[in-house]
Amino acid sequence: MGRPEESRSEVSAVALVGGLGDVLSALSKALQRKGHLVEIVLPKYDCMQYESIQDLRVLDLVVESYFDGQLFKNKIWIGTVEGLPVYFIEPLHPAKFFWRGKTYGEPDDFRRFSFFSRAALELLHQADKKPDIIHCHDWQTAFVAPLYWDLYAPKGLNSARICFTCHNFEYQGTAPASEIASCGLDIHNLNRPDRMQDHSSPDRINPVKGAIVFSNIVTTVSPTYAQEVRTSKGGQGLHATLNAHAQKFVGILNGIDTDSWNPATDSFLRFQYNTNDLEGKAENKKALQRHLGLSFSDSRRPLVGCITRLVPQKGVHLIRHAIYRSLELGGQFVLLGSSPVPDIRREFEEIAKNFENHEHVRLILKYDEALSHSIYASSDMFIIPSIFEPCGLTQMIAMRYGAIPIARKTGGLNDSVFDVDDDTIPVQLRNGYTFVTPNEQGFNGAFDRAFNHYKNDNESWQELINRVMNIDFSWDTSASQYEELYLQSVSRARAARQAAG
């Protein structure tokens, strides 16, 4: 198979927003290692980390794309990011769509990303690209699927299969139906219950629904989450559409970039370490305690880590509870995370203030990449008490650094954390502590057992650390599953073309 073309709104190291950018660059690199030509198409944001782009240059190719009844020129740039070729589209549009100082969260996001989706397809068409797979991610590039079949396949860009991955069905990008016309899509054809009409109103359009209907392959980021979103409770209004297209919908667990997340080579750490020599983990813990002004007199006092966005999805009431429960059980607690929700932000600022001089608790309410590596390396346990979690990467990273996860059984957490006391799970797969009910009692059931284990059976705890650090959470397995889906879809399309003669 030749080339997956990745149409996406962000990629790690350039326009990283949360875990999506991490996932996209790691998947692309894994596919590239398997011998595929992977090219990425991104908007040219003004707020990108330009120092991460090698050989950035403008192409002698001006791509014109349709929007609001007229053609607009797009300047096309190309560069290399982490060994991957990336095309950057700079719209010469008076609205300055991607010169806003941020990637998402603008009032006209629907217009910005529908413009980008059409321009990206126009780039493929005008540059005479012939991808086997066009892989789109989340609602911002969901427009590609209907645009491709309605407008570009008839123009001759018809060799590709469309793969759409939704990383979180909570975000669907709905808008008034009239807005779909700007990028050239036909409202009357698409604003129908079996196509793009949102379940909430006949006057609203849903890009994610359109991508589910019009893509050849639809994926999400873990097998359990794929089951959850096919129910009325978890589907965010899209369960009926997903069930109608179930034959092409699959959950594939994300991996992590094991080059970036490797305690043996991590340049952010004061002390590197591995499963054969865990002394560096203890030294990192001491260094972090010193750095944050925490007590380090008792090396056997367990340190509980938490790195997260403080939003309702992440179980903030349980994170708050865990701070106090850690103290009651004789532990320390470190939280790194910020919140876009004013009430939650104020609440945690108040908690941080109360503990600012405490010897066993520290809350750092911001994003800090270097500190995140130190916390993973220093923590004995790591909490992920999410209400729902499509995949979750923190539990995988924590395990790679020898921190034992305490997680709620939901989504990707259910596919990657298996309780040490669960007799139905093979012993060699048990790697943490889990709970089901998202309340304090449910959380304590797992949390207290972890503390008892840590304090009362050091030898078995060390064995558990070795086990979790040796689990393969690399992208190789997941990339192989994507590769298989791509190949099957391309083969079916070729067979159908031959049959049609």
UniProtKB/TrEMBL annotation:
A single cellular component GO annotation: amyloplast
Reaction(s) the record says it catalyses: [(1->4)-alpha-D-glucosyl](n) + ADP-alpha-D-glucose = [(1->4)-alpha-D-glucosyl](n+1) + ADP + H(+)
Keyword tags: Amyloplast, Chloroplast, Glycosyltransferase, Plastid, Starch biosynthesis, Transferase, Transit peptide
Signal peptide: none
Keyword Glycosyltransferase part of the UniProt annotation: yes
Localization of this protein: Plastid, Chloroplast; Plastid, Amyloplast
Pathway(s) of this molecule: Glycan biosynthesis; starch biosynthesis
Enzyme Commission (EC) number: 2.4.1.-
Annotated ranges, domain Starch synthase catalytic: 9-243
Domain of life: Eukaryota
Single GO biological process annotation from the record: starch biosynthetic process
Record domain Glycosyl transferase family: where: 298-454
Gene Ontology MF terms in the entry: alpha-1,4-glucan glucosyltransferase (ADP-glucose donor) activity; alpha-1,4-glucan glucosyltransferase (UDP-glucose donor) activity
SUPFAM superfamilies: UDP-Glycosyltransferase/glycogen phosphorylase
Similarity annotation: Belongs to the glycosyltransferase 1 family. Bacterial/plant glycogen synthase subfamily.
Protein name: Starch synthase, chloroplastic/amyloplastic
